[in-house]
Amino acid sequence: MNNWASLLIPAILGLTAGIGHGITAHHQDLPFSLAEQVIESVQRDSSFN
């Protein structure tokens, strides 16, 4: 069970943090979601190559 706990606990914490970020961003009417920020930065990095 110790092996499962080392995978399950970080997964639950990450999921909770992601959901919390999404709720906070939605309530504060932030202009970009986290996914849009990642996509924009990846596209910007690929355009430099």
Structure, explained:
- The chain is mainly α and 49 residues long.
- It contains two helices and no strands.
- The protein is flat.
- The protein starts with a helix and ends with a helix.
Kindly summarize this structure in a few lines.
The protein is mainly alpha-helical. It is about 85% helix and about 0% strand.
| Largest pleated sheet | none
Order of helices and strands: HH
- Uncertain segments are none
Termini, distance in Å?
Answer: 45 Å
> What is the number of strand segments?
0
Give the proportion of residues in helices.
Answer: over 70%
Estimated structural class? mainly alpha
- Measured by DSSP, the beta-strand proportion falls in under 5%
Q: What characteristics describe this protein?
A:
49 residues; 2 helices; mainly alpha; single chain
Task: Set out the fold topology.
Blueprint: H1 2-27, H2 34-48
